[in-house]
Design brief:
This protein is of the alpha+beta class. It has helices spanning 2-27, 32-57, 66-146, 151-178, 181-186, 188-200, 221-242, 283-292, and strands spanning 206-211, 246-254, 257-264, 296-301, 307-314. It contains eight helices and five strands.
Length: 315
């Protein structure tokens, strides 16, 4: 009786497994591997049913014949073939995941390239459009200021000339921030150094930039843009959020990898509770940019311990 109950439970489980496997055949798009596994479950259930019938009838002649052995061989073969072929299904899933990640990188790269093209176009329009107009207005006002007039008129002209000079400088600065010519003409090291110097002129924070790379060390333009923008974003984050007084940046090339190390002495943040992307820090944007060039972005911080980041990209 105990053997009959055990066989009934075994048959129930195997039939249930066979039904589930058959229902998943369509989900797996009728792959041969899953069809074979489904057949294997059915054959196992069939074998147990035959065993149950013979146990009830007290007739075990079937298990004394080679037929039982061959049924076991068939079941073993079906499961072995199914497991062997199922590897192809997992490989297809892995390949699809790799393709998805590659597509994401291509999309991000295309967005970055489009963004940079628009930045360059807008910077060129500002420089070549408004720049000459303001320069002409400045020359006209300078000419007017040479004419004889009362003190009030001269003061107005001098003030207008000062405002125009400030507007010209502002346009130059905006144009350079949109598309820094230093990055295009002289490379990553010079561009980061130039940005650090311009920020340092405000006297609000001290930036130490250390590198052995020269203007002759040029890399792929997309790579240079990504690393430059990421470094600028980190500096802006420190200025806006960290209340730091010092930033240390190092840029080096180790074999075929560009490495940027970034440290500030600010107040830091709790990585367990703070989501930088939701607090205007844009660290997720930096990560996606680095990912578009197969780079790595690692950041560590804690309250009172500042921010420590590493950016790595293979060239």
């Amino acid at each position: 009786m105990v053997r009959i109950v055990a066989l009934l439970i075994s048959i129930a489980f195997q039939v249930f497994a066979a039904v589930l496997a058959i229902r998943l055949v369509r989900v797996t798009k009728y792959r041969a591997s899953w069809i074979l596994i489904s057949i294997g479950f059915l054959l196992m259930a069939l074998k147990q049913v035959i065993k149950l019938i013979q146990l009830i009838n007290n007739d075990f002649s079937f298990y004394l014949r080679p037929a039982d052995d061959w049924l076991g061989v068939i079941i073993s073969f079906v499961f072995t073939a199914g497991v062997f072929l199922i590897g192809e299904m997992f490989y297809s899933l892995s390949r699809a995941e790799r393709e998805r990640k590659r597509a994401e990188r291509r999309m991000t790269r295309a967005i970055i390239q489009t963004e940079e093209r628009e930045r360059r176009r807008f910077a060129k329009d500002l420089h070549d459009g408004l720049g000459p107009l303001l320069s002409t207005a400045r020359m006209s006002i300078s000419a007017l200021s040479q004419l004889k007039g009362d003190e009030h008129s001269k003061a107005v002209l001098d003030n207008a000339n000062t405002v125009i000079n400030e507007a010209v400088e502002s346009i130059k600065e905006i144009s350079n921030n949109l598309s820094p010519h230093v990055l295009t003409n002289f490379g990553l090291a010079s561009a980061i150094r130039n940005f650090a110097q311009r920020v340092g002129q405000t006297k609000s924070i001290n930036i130490n930039f250390d590198t052995k790379l020269t203007d002759a060390d040029r890399f792929d333009s997309n790579l240079e843009v990504v690393l430059y923008r990421a470094t600028c974003e980190l500096i802006n984050n420190t200025i806006k959020h960290a209340e730091a007084t010092k930033i240390d940046i190092s840029l080096e090339k180790i074999q075929r990898t560009i490495v940027i190390k970034y440290d500030d002495n600010g107040k830091g943040f709790d990585q367990e509770t703070v989501r930088p992307s939701e607090n205007g820090m844009g660290l997720s944007n930096i990560s996606s940019r680095l990912n578009s060039v197969n780079g790595v972005f690692v950041i560590n911080s804690a309250p009172g311990d500042g921010v420590h980041a590493i950016l790595k990209v293979k060239v």
